[in-house]
Amino acid sequence: MRYDNLSIRGKVAYIIMCFERYILLKYPHKDMTLVLKFMWNIVNDSDFIDNSAYKYMEIIPDYLYEAPDFDSLEMDYVTREEYNKFLELIPRPETDPEFNIIMHHIYDVAMLYAYTVVELNSQKIRNDIAEVDGILVKNKIELPDVKLIPSDSKEWDGWGNFINPYSLSMILKK
User: Fold this and answer.
1) Does residue 42 belong to any structural domain of this protein?
2) What is the pTM assigned to this prediction?
3) Is residue 173 in a domain?
């Protein structure tokens, strides 16, 4: 497949790039910078990939809307102020299931091989990316160019080098 040579970080970056294209179409007037920073932290050099993914998991719609308020959730990373901002930005899972699905796949690909040996082209990862691609195709959104992603599967036992989000993001600005 066209993304087989991408590392795990590269595959996560690809899905984030898909998410950016999706939100630009569906939510052009919302500033999703805060959401994107949580996403891109998974692949940049800010922390270990698993730590960043755990932080990010708290903003996936299924988790974010799991309880009626901040105090009822067990948030380890998201502050009350961020939580309130995320509620303004992130739609409920039932309101936009595709948004929720794409966000889940970012986490799923990042964490699939945490604490074990990477199997780069597993059927699970192929299915995750295929579902995200399908969402974009269904919505007539052009797929990102995987050749832009500088993270080869031969780097760091398949995890890949860190990725600078500013080199790939259509939304984040330095």
Assistant:
1) yes
2) 0.93
3) no
